[in-house]
Amino acid sequence: MVTGSFVICICGKGGVGKTTVTALITKALVEENKKIRLLVIDADPVSGAASALGIKDPRSVGEVREEIISGVGSGRGKEIKDNLDYILLSTLIERDDFNFLAMGMTETLGCFCPVNTILKRAITSLSSSFDVVLIDAEAGIEQLHRKVIGGVDLLLIVTDPSQRGFATAGIIKKITEQHPQLRPKKMGLIINRYRDGLDNLKAHAYNENLDVWGIIPEDEAISNLDLRGSPIYGISKNAQSYESVKNILVQVLKREVI
Length: 258
What we know:
By secondary structure, this protein is an alpha/beta fold. The chain has a single domain, classed as Rossmann fold (3-Layer(aba) Sandwich), CATH 3.40.50.300. The protein has 11 helices and 8 strands. Helix 1 (18-32) packs across helix 11 (240-253). The longest helix is centred in the middle third of the chain and has 16 residues, at 163-178.
C-alpha cells in the first residue's frame, strides 16, 4: 500500500467512456483491497460518476462555492472561512466501500479565483486522509489546468476506437509533456469499447506516441446496465470489462494500491 494519497486521473475526449472506466476502476480497487481508503471525485460538471456509482443527488462543491460567494457578499466572509472544512465535509458522501465528492457546476458568473483557491486547498487537505484519490475529469484537460488536487501520480487517457478519440488523447499527452506542472508521474492509454482491428488501433496509438496500457472490450453487461438505468458499479465480477480493468490495474500499478 502506498503512503499518502496516490492520485489517479481519468481523462479523454467526451463520450469515450471515462465515467464507465472510473466506475470499473473503483470496483476493482475496492474488490482487490477491502481496507483501501478510497476517495472518488467526480470533476465533470455533468456529474455522471454519481449515477455510475449508484449515488443519488450528491451535494456538490459547486453548490458550496455558490454559498460561499453569497455569504461573502453578505458580510459573512470570516465566518465561512473559519468553517470551510466543515462546509466542505458536508459534500462528502461516506460509504463503507469508498467515499465520494462531486465538484458539480456553478451558476455565478465572473472571476472568483480567491474562493476557488480556498476550495482547492480544502480539497487537498481532505484528500490527504485517503490512500487513493480517483478523479473522473471532464472532457479534455481542463481539470489538469485547474489542478483540482495537486499533482497527479497516474494519468489514464481513455479513448474509444475512433480516430478523433486517439487524436484527442495525443493532444492531452503533448500538452501535459509541455507543461511540467501538469506532467504526471505515469501516463498511458486505455482503449475502451474494443471490438476488432487491434493492429489498426495500435497503429493509431503509435502515431500519437501513446503507450497502450490496456484494452477494455465492448461489453454487453455494461449495455444492459445502461438500459436498465442501473449503476455500472454493480457489474458482475465475471464481466469481461471488469476483468480487463482489474488486469490493467495489476499490470500498471504493480499492486502499489491494490
